[in-house]
Known about the structure:
Elements: E1 10-12, E2 15-17, E3 24-28, E4 35-40, H1 44-61, H2 66-82, H3 84-95, H4 99-116, E5 127-132, E6 135-143, E7 146-150, H5 158-169, E8 173-177, H6 184-195, E9 203-205, H7 210-218, E10 222-228, H8 231-243, E11 247-251, E12 256-260, H9 266-278, E13 288-294, H10 301-309, H11 328-343, E14 347-350, E15 369-372, H12 379-382, E16 389-395, H13 398-407, E17 410-411, E18 413-417, H14 421-430, E19 435-438, E20 454-455, E21 458-459, H15 466-472, E22 474-482
Parallel strand pairs: 7-8, 7-10, 8-9, 10-11, 12-13, 12-18, 13-16, 15-16, 18-19
Antiparallel strand pairs: 1-2, 3-4, 5-6, 6-22, 11-21, 14-15, 17-20
Helix pairs in contact: 2-4, 2-6, 3-4, 3-6, 4-5, 7-8, 9-10
The structure holds nicotinamide-adenine-dinucleotide (NAD).
EC number: 1.2.1.27
GO biological process, one term: thymine catabolic process
Protein name: methylmalonate-semialdehyde dehydrogenase (CoA acylating)
Amino acid sequence: MSQSVPNIKLLIGGEFVESQTTEWRDIVNPATQEVLARVPLATADEVNAAVAAAKEAFKTWKKTPIGTRARIFLKYQQLIRENMKELAAILTAEQGKTLADAEGDIFRGLEVVEHAANIGTLQMGEYAENVAGGVDTYTVQQPLGVCAGITPFNFPAMIPLWMFPMAIATGNTFVLKPSEQDPMVTMRLVELALEAGIPKGVLNVVHGAASVVDAICDHPDIKAVSFVGSTKVGTHVYQRATLSGKRAQCMMGAKNHAIVLPDANKEQALNQLTGAAFGAAGQRCMALSVAVLVGEAQQWIPELVAKAKGLKVGPGKDNPDLGPVISCAALDRVKSLIARGVEEGAKLELDGRGVKVAGFESGNFVGPTIFSGVKPEMAIYHQEIFGPVLCLMAADTLDEAIAIINANPNGNGTAVFTQSGAAARKFQEEIDVGQVGINVPIPVPVPLFSFTGSRASKLGDLGPYGKQVVAFYTQTKTVTSRWFDDEASSGKVHTTISLR
Length: 500
Ligand code: NAD
């Protein structure tokens, strides 16, 4: 383990502190294998200290006026904009994606911060006058207390920003557990959040892996857990957190299909499919990793392959089309799944395994890879590869293509490419997937809406950001009140339940 690199700090009670742990992991640039920093796997005492700081801060933060909270996020969005280039450079160095895509990652999080600055109107209760004689009922949406977030490696800016701004803007305090693979940009965003005015203890950060996540799930003072990551870990987090009485929302893994109908605008459809399959080296939960080509669209494979072949692979800092995958282990896994696809009889139309990037020979690079003739029982189909690998399947009709998608266990994102309104409408109505794109390849909703997901891609009723997350991070209280004026008679005792 390298000694000369910086240690990533914990944030507890407003102070960036060095962990006392004996367990550290290297953060590695996936294009070069350079060790950039070391991240601690926090101790149980450190997790407890972060939760205690958040619990203490909640006492005053929950009473902080809505406008004061909102103005912090107004300032925060400005600071993120001003530091965009620096944030993108950190993100690219530790995660691998291109600088342009790193800015996209930050921007999609920034949109949530902008929304958090304006959340007051979504946190208003309801009021009904005279629900009984002289009796009124109203509701208030109160914050829950200490909430926690656990985030994946693939969007180290956007996904933390899905979580803590909305939780804090609605009056909660927060403990964030970023991905241990690339926490550096997250920490820079956290520093900017403090600079924007988030008070001590309102936002805390602990680093770590499984044991820290389990400690968060079990901690009696944490009221809600928001998780984004793989289906296996998310299912575990959901079960463990809800078992201890917490609210939980888990946005999880995917296998996103596009349907390409023969009436689609061919050039647009192939360009969009290529970008969505191979952009970010396929490491997006909304990447299109399967395309179902319907009827004559099956003739378009050579043009699709030509477009994919034309993409440039290289270090993210040079802004190619796609950078490396996150780790050597991820690279080995992607390559072994490609080998398995060949063994299982899929036709390898384009093989990205041999790609060489001059000057970056040790980087985790794999180029765009395309299989045709893919069948549901193949590993390349039923596993989430999370690399630049596109599986092509064939169907005779739209109905058949919809049936393929609905039979897959995942329901994160999907898209149809067509010029037919009737076909698009049928698709929208019948497909059992959370995010649906119509000639839009990666339909991640903006924060006026909430991200969702169906079947194995999501557990919990409410989504992150948007209106739904206000419900997730607040508790409805109903107040039923009656005021007596001086002339009111003392009346008589009623022993029935009805309001009079
Ligand atoms: P991951 O599940 O390995 O890790 C996510 C988080 O869980 C990390 O913070 C990690 O430290 C923690 N973790 C890992 N193993 C654990 C264990 N055994 N017990 C407890 N916690 C554990 O996911 P990843 O590889 O970082 O991210 C990629 C996955 O995330 C993909 O499956 C992708 O589809 C999914 N994802 C989903 C969405 C969505 O919105 N649905 C968005 C982005 C990523």
